[in-house]
């Protein structure tokens, strides 16, 4: 059981650092220390996110498996369906962004170069399509490998999302002001109210 507690703890640390490192206050402090190297901060942040995510998933896979559901054709179908929908949502939500800037391969000062406020495409239906897609992928992962570690991955994400959204939107309101406040009133965070024709 200790391994599963550690898994949940690792997720807590990962999500806390993920939120802290993306905050405007932290970025301003880092920029004052990094100086002209700051445009590379986004790439370092992306590498940390990717390596941290992979490390936690590998650790979860190494834990002795406690099976929660029988693996059937139906659960496998659900796994692929949820993962596919999640991937499609993430890919479509990135359509209006520069992937090289988002990941940090194109160095830039994201405190000076404010990204465009996007509310078209997937962002017309939900404010956080990346989170929505990730939630579906984690759900699909659970059905693909229905063990306790997979359930902990999913539960930790579900617990984090309201907090992650709260802090991210606090930052977005600082950046875009009333435009984002109005957007919040009109568009739900994760689950679309309706699909436009």
From TrEMBL:
Compartments reported by the entry: Endomembrane system
Membrane topology of the entry: Multi-pass membrane protein
TM ranges: 6-26, 38-62, 74-91, 124-144, 150-167
Pfam families: PEMT
GO terms assigned for molecular function: methyltransferase activity
Recorded GO CC terms: endomembrane system
Keywords assigned by UniProt, alphabetized: Membrane, Methyltransferase, Transferase, Transmembrane, Transmembrane helix
PANTHER family assigned: PROTEIN-S ISOPRENYLCYSTEINE O-METHYLTRANSFERASE, PROTEIN-S-ISOPRENYLCYSTEINE O-METHYLTRANSFERASE
Name of the protein described by the UniProt record: Protein-S-isoprenylcysteine O-methyltransferase Ste14
GO biological process, one term: methylation
Protein source organism: Cecembia calidifontis
Main localization (coarse): membrane
């Amino acid at each position: 059981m200790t391994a599963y507690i550690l898994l949940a703890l690792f997720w807590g640390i990962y999500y806390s650092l993920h939120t802290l490192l993306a905050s405007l206050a932290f970025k301003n402090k880092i920029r004052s220390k990094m100086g002209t190297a700051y445009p590379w901060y986004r790439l370092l942040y992306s590498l940390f996110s990717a390596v941290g995510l992979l490390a936690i998933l590998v650790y979860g896979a190494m834990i002795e498996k406690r099976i929660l559901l029988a693996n059937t054709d139906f659960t496998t179908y659900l796994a692929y369906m949820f993962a596919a929908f999640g991937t499609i949502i993430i890919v479509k939500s990135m359509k209006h962004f520069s992937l090289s800037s988002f990941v940090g391969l194109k160095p830039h000062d994201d405190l000076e170069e404010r990204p465009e406020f996007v509310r078209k495409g997937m962002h017309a239906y939900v404010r956080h399509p990346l989170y929505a897609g990730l939630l579906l992928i984690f759900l699909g992962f659970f059905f693909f490998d229905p063990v306790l570690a997979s359930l902990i991955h999913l539960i930790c994400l579900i617990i984090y999302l309201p907090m992650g959204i709260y802090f991210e939107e606090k930052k977005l309101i600082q950046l875009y002001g009333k435009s984002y406040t109005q957007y919040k009133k009109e568009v739900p965070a994760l689950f679309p109210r309706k699909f436009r024709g």
